[in-house]
Amino acid sequence: MRILVIGAGGAQGGAVARRLAAEGHAVRGLSRTGSAPEGVEPFAADLGDAARVAEAFAGVTHVSVTLPLVFEAGPVEAYVRNVLEAASGAGVRRLVLNTGNRLPGRATGVAAFDTRRAAAAAALASGVPTVVLSPPLYLENLAAPGVLEAGVLRHPVPGDVPVSWLSHADLAAATSAALLGDGPEGATVAPGSPPVTGVELAAAVGARYEELDVAAFEAGLSAVLGAGAAAGVADTYRWIAAHGRDLYTAGTGDAGAADEEAGDAGVGGAIRVTPPREWLAAQPWAAR
């Protein structure tokens, strides 16, 4: 068994690759630059290069896919087509697609949502045994500079909107369970912790909540991700505020939100999902 992790150079895919390698699996990590965590076989490829993507699947039995932060429909369609054709040709036993965000149940006009909805639909219809993971917001976002500072928690989601949070480590555990467990293919799973509002989350660490202006958020993110990716991410927050205040509460795991301490990966067995308060308390900057 050999597992290909597409996006292994990023935060989400890197967490998945590290988890699978730690579990003792042979892991090949595909990234554009060829970067991969320690213990993972690096493989450099652009997802737009069909021949190179096919090479990455040599000997591969399972694949985890996290798409890059590209939201233009044409390139994303090509990435997904190349991956699915290579997976089919390799006879992959299970493909897990991480959509990177919860997805509305309808077209929104927001490219970051709509391109991932199309990718999930294509994967589920491809004939390749597929599970789709639809995570909520990541707790690691709260550790970014300026988010929790001087007793103020700043985030672009309105303070009264409940959000189910997930850590990268829990994403990796859910991916492993979906990839290697015996759960049914064709499932869409939404792992996450019981939802809390921004105001509640801030209070848990002795802070007050301040809704961050989305334009200011986009400007700061642009310096890290580039203007195109930052605009795509910022548009999701604009849509949530206007149309999707329940996006991060719906489908929180197959177990629902009744258990404060644990969530359910829904495929291949239960995983423990770290509650946001516990994650925040464990951070080295929490005392500040």
Number of helices: 9
Main sheet summary: 7 strands, parallel
CATH C-level class of the domain at 2-136 and 166-192 and 249-271 is Alpha Beta
Number of DSSP strand runs: 12
CATH topology name of the domain at 2-136 and 166-192 and 249-271: Rossmann fold
Low-confidence parts: 252-265
CATH fourth-tier homologous superfamily of the domain at 2-136 and 166-192 and 249-271 = NAD(P)-binding Rossmann-like Domain
Average pLDDT, to the nearest integer? 91
Counting copies of identical and different chains, the oligomeric state is: single chain
The SSE order reads EHEEHEHEHEEEEEHEHEHHH
- 3D shape: globular
Portion of residues in beta strands equals 15-25%
Question: Which class best fits the helix and strand makeup?
Answer: alpha/beta
Could you give the order of strands across the largest sheet? 3-2-1-4-5-6-11
N-to-C span: 45 Å
The CATH architecture of the domain at 2-136 and 166-192 and 249-271 can be named as: 3-Layer(aba) Sandwich
Rg, nearest Å: 18 Å
InterPro entries: Ergot_Alk_Oxidoreductase, NAD(P)-bd_dom_sf, NmrA-like
Protein name: NmrA family NAD(P)-binding protein
Domain NmrA-like: 2-181
Pfam families: NmrA
